[in-house]
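Fold it.
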Amino acid sequence: MGTERLPNEVQSGGRPVRNLISKKKPTYPLSDYFKTYLVRYGRLKDRGVRYQDLMRYDKEIPLYDELGNDTFWSTVFYPPAEQREIHDNLRETYAILKADGDLDAVKHLYIDRVDLCLYGNTLPLRVRIVNSLNDNFDYFYVKKIDANRIYGLELEHILSPSRINYYILADTLIEEHIIGIPADTFIRDSMPTNTFDQVRLAKEFAKFNERCFVRLLGDMHTGNFVIDIRRDFEKWHYQMRPIDFDQQSHHWRKQVYLPAFYTQNGPFIKIGIEHLDPDNVIQYQKEERAMIANRVRVSHGRYNALVEVMREDLISSDTYVERLRSQLAKHYDDDRFNYCETMGDMVHLSIHRILDHSKPATPNWTSVDVV
């Protein structure tokens, strides 16, 4: 689903693009200007565990799911002399992430497992933490710093229906777990079979596709987003949430930012073709753009502060910027994109277009009868 309707090759039954990204993305450091923004909004901390601390493991074993399939994660183990210190630091990290650093809130918690992702670009670590009183558990993640990812998290926090909880310690990123069913697992086990729920799911995919494209969040195939299912008084509500933000405003190809161009997302595209008229898609896209515009207006200047920093930052190559801006200029029929010098400039212009076309209604007070 493009910005106005389903892509032509999808509408005509063609196959979406499978491999849009062929090269490993480089990581970009946080600029001093960006750090100033992050300090202002409480994202920088001075306590907790560091990524390099968790890489001091001496053993690892593959982690399999309940069906015996390889998850491509490995559980790592630490030398006995270091394990207690590392686990204590992880508990403190969780307290900072979830309870503003209150250690009393984590006194009944223990670290059950630390897993290392072997296929991710930055080798992220996932920590499973358990409450000893009731066996309830949660996860959080420890990752390397990358400016694209941080911009992605901030834009998600401001522009999406969800809020994101994370913080940064030096060169380490601590992220909360985003709850939901991985989209590939959802397709395998939980795809609805009734028309009512399929329509709702297709509607959400149309809106998700729009959110990603407007803010230039790329690589949203089924391995990189989850489905959050909630019960309401009429069956189920679906929300699609990104979990990987590495390709925020980096790649040169327009299709990278459109989930509807990924073969892995084919089942979602299929139900959209079956159940959504093109006019429906346009309606949902307009609704989503209006919601994004409203979120910008109520961000109390946070979006403006972020995009001001982003427009000055270098989070992609000049070649990528030049190639993407020409595609967006053609896509939107808007020559202003050709003058964008950074990825941040393109995000700013993309959102600015929404604000221009989604202005709130202003009543003419001079014609209102006062009672």
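Residues 1-18, 362-371 have pLDDT under 50 and may be disordered.
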